[in-house]
């Protein structure tokens, strides 16, 4: 097993095979040139597949960002679906946050969502909205709060997705289609991360949220 990084040029891309990487791969573009970082044991065939995937993603149209109006619509739907429309929600909007996904002030009925979530898949963002809506009824994170949280069927999937995002996996490079479960499966296949989540998603048949 090599102990140092190996750099090679392949199919017009710079490939860095690192012994420090165990399972995940990533890429970036530097002055229009693709730089791919992979585990040292990655096969030639897999590297070529990742290069092609990176180029496909680079030419895909950008995803539209959700607006405050989208937040209001999604929150209203979640309120109606999982809380019977009784939540005292007075406002929901995007704000700039660096270390949090969202926040809630139960006394005023205000919810704030990190602007970074404007570009994630709707079902992921809705999980965060749902989390904050639960706080309108339960300020803490005790059993009653967890019971409310469990009403959103894809919450654990969304939590796993966000952990990938926060660990630096380049999910922003993956334009997501309406078939969001399939898109998340493709992401996990590409990174090789979280095999339990991959298996769970593969067995799910209901993905509407």
Mean pLDDT: 79
How would you name the CATH homologous superfamily of the largest domain?
Metalloproteases ("zincins"), catalytic domain
What is the CATH topology classification name of the largest domain?
A: Zincin-like
Question: Which class of secondary structure composition applies to the elements?
Answer: alpha/beta
| Domains (count) | 2
Dominant shape: elongated
Number of DSSP strand runs: 7
CATH architecture identity of the largest domain: 2-Layer Sandwich
Range of strand content: 15-25%
The end-to-end span amounts to 45 Å
Question: Helix coverage percent of residues?
Answer: 40-55%
Largest sheet: 4 strands, mixed
Report the total helices.
7
Give the strand order, joined by hyphens, for the main sheet.
1-2-4-3
Low-confidence stretches: 170-178, 204-209
As a whole number of angstroms, the C-alpha radius of gyration is: 20 Å
Succession of helices and strands = EEEEHHEEEHHHHH
CATH class designation of the largest domain: Alpha Beta
């Amino acid at each position: 097993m090599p102990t140092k990084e190996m750099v090679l040029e392949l199919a017009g891309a710079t490939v860095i095979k690192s012994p420090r990487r165990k399972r995940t791969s990533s890429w970036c573009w530097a002055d229009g040139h693709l730089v791919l970082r992979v585990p040292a044991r990655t096969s030639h065939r897999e590297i070529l597949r990742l290069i092609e995937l990176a180029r496909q993603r680079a030419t895909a149209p950008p995803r539209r960002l959700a607006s405050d109006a989208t937040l209001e619509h999604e929150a209203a739907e979640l309120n109606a679906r999982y809380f019977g429309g009784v939540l005292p929600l007075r406002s929901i909007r995007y704000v700039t946050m660096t270390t949090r996904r969202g926040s809630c002030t139960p006394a005023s009925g205000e919810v704030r969502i990190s602007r970074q979530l404007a570009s994630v898949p709707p079902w992921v963002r809705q999980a965060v909205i749902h989390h904050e809506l639960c706080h309108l009824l339960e300020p803490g994170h005790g059993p009653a709060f967890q019971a409310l949280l469990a009403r959103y069927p894809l919450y654990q999937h969304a939590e796993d997705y966000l952990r990938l995002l926060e660990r630096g996996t380049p999910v922003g490079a993956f334009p997501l289609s309406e078939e969001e479960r399939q898109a998340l499966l493709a992401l996990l296949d590409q990174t090789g991360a979280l095999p339990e989540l991959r298996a769970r998603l593969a067995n799910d048949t209901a993905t509407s949220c």
